[in-house]
Amino acid sequence: MPTTPINFYFIFYIFFALIPHFPSSIAQDLPTLKCYKCNTYADGLNCTTNLKHLQPTLCENSYDKCYMKIGIGGDILRGCVAAGAVTTRCQASSCVVCDFEGCNDHNVCKSCSTSDADCSKTDVSDKKFDEICESSQTECLAKVTDGKVERRCAQNTDQCNDTCTMCSGALCNDGVFPKDRLSCFQCNGIDCKNPFEPLQAGSPCHNYIEDDKCYTYGDNDSNMQRGCLSDEVNPCAGDNQSTGKCLVCNSNNCNSRSYKRPQVLKCIQCEGSKENTECFNLQDPNSATDCSKKELLYTDEEACYTHLKNNVVKRGCLYEHMTNEGECKEENGCEKCSGMDGCNHKEITFKFTCIVCRSDTNTKCQNNAKNLKGASCRTDAGWSKGCFYGIWNNVIIRGCYVDAHEQMQYVCSDKSNTQCHVCEGSDCNTSVLSNASALNTSTNFYLPHFFSLLFVKFYFI
């Protein structure tokens, strides 16, 4: 059988010709790029906020690139991607590609616009708001524009004011912004009927304004509305707050009252006068009793009251004495309180004064006593007896009835005697007296004795 001779020289030529090219080809295929490789599913925050704890590692292929991607579920992925697979595996804007060592360390910020209500009303914790920034050095921004919040990766041209913040670090512009944004219960209709639980949370107001307030408005228990005064449309806007149906408050989730609620506050309930002074004294808070009005409207504040008028005191439950809280005013002698049972227990002290003077030592005492300043009575019970004013030997004398000598009190208490008069109320003894020489004859009989007593007894002489 014939054979074909093998040309060994030809084989050796081919072999030695190819050998020099092998090292070069192998070297070109060796990977040289290092990238961060992680994902939040396996590595947690280390792949998002704590990237500095990781080190870039070598890619598998020389033609690989670094990439960073936000997955469908919101997870962060970093790693190497083949150059030919970039268009299929890395879609902008949820993915970025770069080609130098450790370049896939981009920062991540929350991103949403003022047209998105969740951007203002929530803490934007949902991963759908995550956005890849231009570099690892890019800051995050959150700012208020026309009451609405915008969040994004900051730009070099951005400048901040009081309602704007720029921060470093991944997702640092999350959370409710601004931090002092008010939270209120927000509902209407039948959903607003029942009272909210103490630990139940409302929602941040959609618009941000300083000194915002929560409101409650109701026509009846099945037609109520709750929200923020900053809402574009609300029944308590402007002058509507004075309709009597708006309850406004300024703390988080304060608008939680039901249309009607039980009155649980207990009050001291008593009456007192000059003849019966027990109610004027310090009361025991433990003796407070239930109010007879068992339910209050949402606009009413539980309160006790103490009312002093014409030397008569009344203590009790505010809404059993008055139709609304505004009727109890300090200038009318009324004081209200709340916060604890029997809060209206304090002793009633009087700043009772009378005009104290003699016309022979003070010219104003005769006809201009109303321009004199009253003086406190020596005895605390001055309020119960009043002031006096009278004429003795053409001298007008004014003072506290309780500080007068008993003989003078006898004359002044005699209503048929026109020489001296008694009146109630602080500084009430300012009336002008006439016909000073027309003295009662029975009184003249005692004048020397009266004046000797007055000289000794009266502190105003």
UniProtKB/TrEMBL annotation:
<protein>
    <recommendedName>
        <fullName>DUF753 domain-containing protein</fullName>
    </recommendedName>
</protein>
<dbReference type="InterPro" id="IPR008472">
    <property type="entry name" value="DUF753"/>
</dbReference>
<feature type="signal peptide">
    <location>
        <begin position="1"/>
        <end position="27"/>
    </location>
</feature>
<feature type="domain" description="DUF753">
    <location>
        <begin position="353"/>
        <end position="429"/>
    </location>
</feature>
<feature type="domain" description="DUF753">
    <location>
        <begin position="182"/>
        <end position="255"/>
    </location>
</feature>
<keyword id="KW-0732">Signal</keyword>
<feature type="domain" description="DUF753">
    <location>
        <begin position="34"/>
        <end position="104"/>
    </location>
</feature>
<dbReference type="Pfam" id="PF05444">
    <property type="entry name" value="DUF753"/>
</dbReference>
